[in-house]
Amino acid sequence: MLASILAALTACSPYASINKENKQLALAGFVAHPADTTARWQMMNLLPPNKLAYRLSAQGPILLYADPLACGCVYFGDRQAYNHYVATHKISPTEEKEMQAEINMHPGWDWTAWAPTADPDAVSGLRRAINQPPGWQ
Q1: Looking only at Cα atoms, what is the longest distance across the chain?
Q2: If 129 and its partner were Cys, which of 49, 90, 122, 124 is the partner (CB 3.0–4.6 Å)?
Q3: pLDDT, tens only, 55-79
Q4: Which domain of life is it from (predicted)?
């Protein structure tokens, strides 16, 4: 009974659709990175909220999905994760064009804000660094 009440309350949450999208991104292979420093928060706010965008990196395009409300994080995905995502979601040509145009709106993207060394807790050993395997020293 309690489980059904909690499920009903969760469905009524204003974040329900965002949480559903976050789960679908994670299932597709996107990885959530918390915006837990001032620099990361600033970078997250350069992205359109709750929409796919991308930035170029040395490894090629990285697909990004900023969720400033429900998780306070940015989901990062490579081309493979994006292909998994679009296999179950229809992305219109207009949305593709918006993603391409959006990259020109904020040329000041700083990948160093997302480096493991940019997180004071990861550096001090209080929390695992991003993409650092468990048990890695």
Answers
A1: 51
A2: 122
A3: 888 888 899 999 998 889 999 999 9
A4: Bacteria
Is residue 35 within 8 A of residue 74, CB to CB? The reply is yes
Spatial distance between the Cα atoms of 137 and 51, rounded to a whole number of angstroms? 35
- C-alpha 94: how far from chain center: 21
Based on the structure, what is the number of domains in the chain?
1
- The boundaries of the domain holding residue 104 are 16-117
The answer to whether residue 1 is domain-embedded is no
Contacts of 107 (CB under 8 A, 6+ apart): none
User: Is 50 inside any structural domain?
Assistant: yes
pLDDT in tens, 2-38: 555 445 445 555 656 667 888 999 999 999 999 988 8
- 100 part of a folded domain: yes
